[in-house]
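re: ur question from yesterday

yeah so i grabbed the chain u mentioned. its 292 aa long if i counted rite. heres the sequnce exactly as i have it in my notes:
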Amino acid sequence: MIRLQSDSGDYVGGGGNYEYTQADAVISVAPGAGHFNIWIRGDQEFVGYLMSPSTNTRLKAGTYQAQKYPYSDPTTGGLAWVSGVASQCTTVRGSFTIDSVTYRDTTLTQIDVRFDEYCENLTRGLHGQIHWAAADTTRPPGPVLPVPLGLWTPPSGATPATGNYLYLTSDPGDYIAGGQSYMYSDSIGVTASGNGLSVTRGSWAGEFQVMSSVAKPQAGYYAGLSRYPYNNPAKGEFGWDGNGHACPNVVAWVAIDRIGYDANGITTLDMRFEQHCSGATPALHGVIHWVR
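ran it thru and got these structure tokens back, copy pasting raw so excuse formatting
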């Protein structure tokens, strides 16, 4: 669990409050001799570095004054936090307290840390609390099943009764399809690799990647998707481009109503989606029915 509280005017946190667990973010750590680095990839992204004095061959409980890592005095301590928008301090005044730390032989197994970081001698800072345990096997949940009722479906008669098809329909003002509808029944490509799949037809291309805890796309509802590299890997990634347009970022959901595989890969796909480009209200909707 990581909690970050940013004062108004703080460069790194932008005045927000943030909380992450391994159920809603991907948290990676890199402990070493006297230092602890942590990378949080959630709805926002943060990277933190803590370095204890050089006299410590490994992390020890205690309070340490800190300057900006890696330019800090090695006899005191180092501290640096960077946000996903590359906001960071030029200079740092701060401290961190290791409340508890546990090793198994030379391997770090648990740590509890609190810290305060102030950029450029400001009085407004970033404050945080970290509890990390190697034994925590919590992972993000998979897709929602059954797929919720009430999600967008194509209007009656818009799609054929048989055969493969790709149907796209766009609200007025949508950047990708400009309020138009498109129906295709040929030359539709569907491929799956790892935990992602792609759909192509002419100039249209869709990329979907499921959450980090799922090995490959499966039936269910996937909410809160955004576009790589701004996506939360604990939720997944989606982006649909075409018509000469692409969104720098999206807010989207995907519903896979049916999907099948054999030894040669994906065999069937029934998928719906809704995408809002760059926070705009107008949506692009799509449905794919495909059998290899």
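noticed a couple things. Residues 165-291 form one domain. also Residues 84 and 280 are 22 Å apart (CA to CA).
anyway ttyl
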